[in-house]
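Cont'd.
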Amino acid sequence: MLEAGGRWRARWLPELGIAIALTVLPFVFEAGFGALDLLTRVLIWGIFGLGFDLLFAFTGLLSFGQAAFYGTGGFVTGYLLTSGTLSNVWLAMAAGIAAAAVFGVFVGLLALRRVGIYFAMITLAFGELSYFLENSPLATWTGGENGLPGVPAPSVHIGGFSMSFGGSWPSYELVGAFFFAGFVFTRFVVLSPVGSVLTAIRQNPERTAALGHDVPAYKLAVFVVAAAFAGCAGALLGIFQSYMPPESFALDTSGQLVIQTVIGGAGTLIGPAVGAFIWLSLRDGLQQVAAVSDLWKFILGAVFVVLITFLPNGIVGAIFRLKSHVRPHHADGIARRDDAAPGGTLLAPMPNVTAPGAATLALDVRDIKKSYGGIHAIHGVSLALPEGRFHAVIGPNGAGKSTLLRLLAREETLDAGRIFLHGKDISTADVTAAYQHGMAKSYQINQLFPQQTVRQNLRIGALGRHRGRWRLDVFRAADGFATVEEIVAALVKELGLTECADLAVNTLPYGEKRRLELGLALVSRPSMLLLDEPLAGLSPPEREGIKQLLRNLGKGRTVILVEHDMDAVFELAEQITVLQEGRKLAEGTAGEISSNLLVKQAYLGGTMP
Amino acid sequence: MPTLPQFLSQAFNGVALGCLLALISSGLTIILGTLGVLNFAHGAVFMLGAYSGFVVLSHWGSFGAALIIGALVLLLFGLAVERGLIRFYYSRPHEHQILVTFGLGIMMVEAVRHVFGGLSQRVPLPSWGQGIVNFGFFFYPLYRVEAIGIIAALLLGFYLLLYRTRIGLVVRAGIEDPLMVGLLGTHVSRVFMVVFSIGTMAAGVAGVIYAPLAAVIPNMGEPFLAESFVVVVIGGLGSFPGAIVGGIVVGEILSLTTLFNPAYSQAAIYAVMTLVLIVRPHGLFGTTGRV
């Protein structure tokens, strides 16, 4: 009971804090700065920033074109109202937000085809495009360089009570209510499985996709949410100042949003609002000082450069960091569940949906081919693995072992041939679909989410299988799936990672990371497990540990092991395939392979006696 | 329908603008390709070039001096910025590099605004650039013809530097794989410094040449930054030939659309960029796998 109360408090404390701040701050602003409107402006930027924070800080997508959606929301709302098309301000706002979201779908579909630098360039280009569209071709509707004056304020009529949101205080109440609702919503998103997936995408998009999450769909979703928030902020701006300015579309607007978010603290949700306060009060304050009146933006630019260089987490981020140094808290705030049931049944392979006949092979690979340029990496390989087989693939360097695993895991397209997993044709499936169908792979080079804890890492993998490839369950807690938590707890124990379960992965030594890498492949309870050199880089005692783990967890699964440690291969594998130059050289039991002359030649070269 | 002389003169305008964009974008793209840094201050560098041209021209009236001094000022500026700021960012995320150059760009624009004021200033045409050329079927301002010639010569020099010299070989190898160039014993950080300075100089010289064509104003670089992004996306990231071809393509689209409906000239280049992104996501001359 007490613990439940504590969790509840921890969950809702930030919301409570924001509610109190929104109640107290207007009086402070009115008394201290003599301007309530400053706070209203700060909050409009704050709403704009809530969506951008999800996009930039959580998902890692730096957009320089958010002005496009801010302007769209504002101008669609403004046009509908000033032209007399709509008289209901709420409906017009909804239309403006919807228009921004639809524009977001369009821009997102194009910009999200690329990441990083390209993404920043393309979003900036679309921002400039919308500015030009507003300024000339659409000037009949938008007023061009003049903007749209006379945007009315909304009002509510309930029974005999009616209230209009025009004027300083009512505007503040309107904007404050939207900010609070937006904050509550974004916090739901952050704490939901969707939030976990977004964070995972930022740190390792390839592995997130390989763990069953539809990365492009989640990226588009967060892009559209950010666009809707921008549209909402734009609509509120027009209503608040009874005028929609064309500069809302300018690059400066997108840039100001980015700067405010970074100065205030990206990834803190309230950072953008704090940054907006700094920006706006510096501008207003410095303009009063004659000597530097035209230098306020230069000073802001300099502050920004200094902050980026020395304090990349922004002001709020730095305060959080300081606090967490003073009082180390349990990441997640979840009680450890070391008393979890032993992993045996919990971690057994999830039963397969498709099992048409008892005679179906677990994996049926028919004459697959893959070449890079003129090099035939895989040149017609077939494999037939019955359910539960522990199979190994060996061969000299460059034989095509890793390519074979990448093809089986559906990380690469096939040139020819077909692959059936439990009777289902997965020849054209992607890595996400293969994972959903019971395939999982552990990588030769660790592919983890370095800033997340061990438990969070495993959770991302378990959620991928449990929730399916795509779901917008933003009102559920990421740690609220009982089955997922049980599996994760059992696996943590099985992997021997109990001590460091709540430590960030980038603080762990290599051996632990290696075990977690294996755990990420197991957490979906796969029926088909692909292991790419799981023993690479480990010391002999660590190897023994992993081998024991493979013996335990390989039970009941079909496994393909690629490994250079021949002792391990001969010890673990029931059947071995030898690859050479992309073709199958031999296949048989350990005994047959070790006495095969061709194999000896392939490894040692020359002619053997 | 526009007449043939109108069409030809707009097409010629397109070449002039295209050359200018090619020069700016080639600077942007080699910095991007070699250092992996997307320089958001590149538009501000262009503006700084235009203002140094403005200062020299209004003091001495010599365009040659403006070109040389402008180039030197921007070369040194690039050197200082790379040594003083950018080099600390090579190992940081792309997003931080973008942000810091964006902040730098703001500081440059605001510093110029503080010194020269926010109003636009006219830059006189050089004495040898005044007048009109008669091409037989249409007339064209002399200075624009000369500007095309100067930029073509500069681009040729740039090409020779990149493809015919030792340092160019290192730079091109660095675009392919900077880590490997370092492992092969080249002092990569020195190469980075040179590339950043040369890239900065290219945009600065473009600014000097542009100054007499239009008035100078502190935020004049902004549209050129966006347009050079479009050029790089169309031409392919890190590709020098891509910057040239992309520059001409974008210049022609801007000019020729203006002939039919000026309101859509900007929209047209973004439409083409979108098309390239769908059909050839890595640009006309880009290779897959980079960034």
